[in-house]
Specification:
This protein has about 220 residues and is an all-beta fold. The protein is built from no helices and 23 strands. About 0% of the residues lie in helices and about 55% in strands.
């Protein structure tokens, strides 16, 4: 299976307009944003757990990174409420579930093999007056993951020297020239791409950079 598999092309999706697609597990549905391969391939998705649903126990052969957008995600290690950011490196395993339901943004098979740090944290999504608030969530080599709170009217520049960038808007709206990107919009920008984004209203977004150069699309 291949979805938005050309990482040299820009992709922008309004995920609110996408349909939820059933996964192999009852009560678990997905919106697939990009994908290389079947159930064990590189993937970026929104995943929704119905109340009482679970996913079978599995090992992360390629690593897993996720952000809880709504509800509470759980596994053997604990409960992760909305705003939780979790990284499970290659070789870790768990059996995820949600008692009351949840939605997560998850990225699979995108870890550097030497990035072995496993952790979780609560993201900071508050606004600090009229200042841009950037919380660094994780950094390894060129890869950087941040939470950005951008006050209304301010701009955020994505420079062309980044090895790719990826944004998920968690609240508010961003604009680019005459285009408005609403909450839950997702964009993936290739290496060498640059743009300036403006907050049309107070906006919080997940930002990942430095991770798209030389992606293997042969799966």
């Amino acid at each position: 299976m291949k979805i938005n598999e050309d990482f040299n092309q820009r992709v922008v999706l309004d995920t609110e307009k996408m349909e939820w697609v059933p996964s192999p597990m009852a009560g678990v549905k997905r919106k697939m944003l990009d994908r290389l391969g079947a159930e064990t391939g590189r993937a970026t998705s929104l995943v929704r757990y119905a109340p009482g649903s679970y996913f079978s126990a599995h090992q992360h052969e390629g690593g897993e990174e996720f952000l809880v957008l709504d509800g509470v995600f759980s596994d053997e290690t604990g409960d992760y409420p909305a705003g939780s950011y979790v990284r499970n490196p290659i070789g870790t395993q768990h059996k995820p579930f949600s008692d009351n339901g949840c939605i997560i943004f998850v990225k699979l098979w995108q870890f550097d093999p030497n990035d072995e740090r496993q952790f979780s944290l609560i993201t900071d999504q508050h606004f600090d007056g009229d200042m841009i608030n950037v919380q660094l969530l994780h950094q390894y080599n060129d890869e950087s993951v941040c939470m950005v709170a951008l006050p209304k009217g301010l701009e955020y520049t994505l420079s062309e020297d980044l090895n790719g960038s990826e944004i998920l808007i968690l609240s508010g709206q961003l604009s680019e020239k005459d285009i408005i990107y609403p909450t839950q919009s997702w964009m993936r920008n290739p290496t060498g791409f640059s743009t300036v984004l403006k907050a049309e209203e107070n906006c919080v977004f997940y930002l990942k950079t430095g991770h798209l150069n030389g992606v293997d699309t042969s799966s």
